[in-house]
User: What shape does this take?
Amino acid sequence: MSTIGDRSQLLGEVVVLDDVGPPRRGRAYPSAGTTAVLLLPAAALLGVLVLWPVVRTVHASLTDGDGRFAGMANYRAALGTEGAWPAVLRTAVWALVVPGLVTVLGFLLAAAARRTPGHRAVTLALVAPFVLPMVVTAVAFRLLYDPDPQRGTAIRLLHVDLLWLGPRMITISLVTAFVWAWVGLALVVFRSALDAIPPQLADAVRVHGGTRRDVFRDALWRPLLRRTAALVFALVALATTRSFDLILVMAPGSVLDESEVLAVRVWLTSGATTSGPAAALGVVWLAIVALCVLIATVGTRQAWPPPAPAPSVVEQGTGLTADDVPARRGWRALPLAAVRLLRIAVPPVAALVWAVPLLVLVGTSLHTAQDAATRPWWAAPFDLGMYLDLSAAGQLRRSLVVTGVLAAVVTVLVLLIATLAGYALASVMPPAGWLAGGVLLAAAVVPVQAIAGPVNEVLERIHAAGTVYGLALVHVALGVPFAVLMLRNALSDVPPQRLRAARLGGRGEWAALWRLLPAAGPALAGVAVLEFVQVWNDLVVGLLFAGPDATPLGFLLYGQSRQFVANSGQIAATSMVMSLVPLAVLALARRHLVAALVSTGIRR
Assistant: This one.
């Protein structure tokens, strides 16, 4: 090898030498000390308000009131009471069957909606329920399934009393409401995955005589859809822990036992205090949720890109297209035409069906209190009096202000803490990176009811229990894990040379981070949208940790629902007011929301 200035000749080729040298952690990445400082806020928050409460809950489940080891006594006491095992079974159904149902339905609608005229409007109609507060979904479906033929829209439409809010059908009614709310998320994530798959893969399979099953397996499922399905399943399984909101508002008190899951049973057993039997139920619940997420995580272990397919006839230059494949001719064209017709017809029909609960909610809100409680919403004259009464209600105005300020402050804090931690973790290599991701995922799936007692113990020690500050702290702690995962993924995708340029060209760590933020712009926007909407829509955190100086909207709506029939007009109007903000956020930031969710788990 001979040297020529700043170049060298190797085997007759000119090679440009890099005077920077191999990337060193001290030059291209934050130092170990800086990484620790950046992680400190997130680690402290999660350690004190999530991870320690989990350990405390496990400890309480194995000890008696005096702190002595009790073995499995608390588990036997908790699971030996009437209704405990049915609640465990229903929780397992919610965590395993319901996510599978949402995943399958979301994929089918996504595949059909891609070829539907006006697919954007159809998609928006199907996605809108996702951003609605779960308490609003509960109100809408309780109105829809009202067993009184004078008010129950479902009974009128089906011309039969199916006892939707009775003990036999309550769980099915709750599941349909949850699917209505969450299938839109599955749809948009699958749509993004389908758009990311090269169409040449399907052409190659078809041209070589592949059936529709072969096309799905080799051109769709193996390349990306298996991983996408696992992501959707995990997100929905996590969301089923919030079925608490739905059950508490939608299920009448007379059938609460028949619809009870561990989320409700833990709350009824201990509220927000620490007790042995409640802790044992909480540990069982944590185990079920962890199992579901573990199953989904195994499904995401998939390489990209897939093995290159054999060259298609099109690529070989014969000029054939997918429509020229013999398998599509003759008698097989008829079922294909039927499939195409279904693809065109199903999404608009689904969008119309999805609009019915919102129509019932809006119609009920546009009546006087007496008409809403005694007459069908489609038969009584419309009236704005309920909204005028709400505008004069000081309690609603206070709740709107408290919820808006709380959501904004929590969003800013989560963005700040998660950005620092995500930037630090983006440069952490395995196995430490895997360990950090596992801890974050575990923290993200912890149901807050399972650790409410220990969390309140922490809040009491810092004199924040029952205050708006304590409420904000809990929201931040619950929002940080998922936000860090999203931002870490976004910053990990930044090319190494850009990372080194930001480090070498900046004036310190903060300047380097500032220069990299545009690369994570979609993820930052998605985190902001998700966090704001989640805090705005919350019921359970407010119910467990709010005090007299903080009454969030979800807590206010739950209080009104205790007299559901008599207050149905007021409840519907309050639900519409509560829904305006998340619907506006969806309309303005839909692309950011979808991009953030997709970037979380669909990565090449």
